[in-house]
Amino acid sequence: MKLGFLVSHNGSNMQAILDACRSGALSAVPAVVISNNSESGALNRAGREGIPSFHLSGMTHPDPESLDRAILDTLLKNEVDVVILAGYMKRLGFATLRQYRGAVLNIHPALLPKFGGKGMYGNRVHEAVIRSGDAESGATIHVVDENYDTGPVIAQERVPVAPGDTPESLAERVLACEHRLFPETLQKIATGAIVLPQD
Ligand code: GRF
Q1: Which ligand 1 atom is nearest residue 15's CA?
Q2: Quick one: what percent of the chain has pLDDT higher than 70?
Q3: What's the confidence (pLDDT) of residue 149?
């Protein structure tokens, strides 16, 4: 199973997956990393790990269709089977989505379908969870469709919200959970224990 990553910032989830590939806990090969942010920590991580990496964005491709095409070509050229959105702040283009339908996964730092949708990212998610008074939050991995955070959920893990939690303290606990959940879920896909929905 060859993995292609789309990342915008730090890339700690990507790193957790790379570590699992290296340790053998995950039977997959990291094939390529694409970032819309030329300064992202994720691109540095990819460089350190010797994984082919590319900056593809509205800067390199001002026309959205040509950007979509460039992203798709890069994934295809590197023979990617599963596309991983690990903190990717952009929407995927139609061509990429069509080609990889059912094989694009995103991780969200809450228990979808709650606290998802446009504008729900980063600390905004954790602020909303704390404001709601919910006793639990968590991490969700879902298949990506045309909308934000709406595709079929394939894995979820719960995390308690502690009294006195700040968005930052809750984010830290959820992120630690994400780092376990993503490699574990990918391994289940690699072994066939989870079958991705086909159209
Ligand atoms: C994670 O919290 C993930 O749920 C969200 O973006 C964040 C990415 O963090 N989609 P990192 O770049 O993997 O550190």
Answers
A1: 13
A2: 99
A3: 86
Ligand 1: centre distance to CA 86 (Å): 6
pLDDT of residue 61: 97
Q: Would you kindly state where each structural domain of the chain is located, as residue ranges?
A: 2-191
Going from the C-alpha of 151 to that of each of 110, 143, 165, the distances in angstroms are: 14, 5, 29
- The count of C-alpha atoms lying within 13 angstroms of the C-alpha of 9, restricted to the half-sphere facing its C-beta, is 9
- Both tokens assigned to 5: 């990553």
pLDDT confidence of residue 199: 60
Domain 2-191 class? alpha beta
Q: For position 123, what pLDDT does the model report?
A: 95
pLDDT tens-digit series, residues 80-91: 999 999 999 999
Q: Which two tokens stand for residue 4?
A: 């292609």
Closest Cα to residue 4, out of 12, 14, 191?
14
| Helix axis angle, 41-49 to 12-23, nearest 10° | 20
Ligand 1 interacting residues, C-beta cut-off 6 A: 9-13, 86-87, 107-109, 175, 178
Spatial CB neighbours of 2, under 8 Å, sequence gap ≥ 6: 28, 29, 31, 78, 79, 80, 81, 82
* pLDDT tens figures, 141-172: 999 998 888 899 999 999 999 999 999 999 99
Phi and psi at residue 174, in whole multiples of 5°? -70, -40
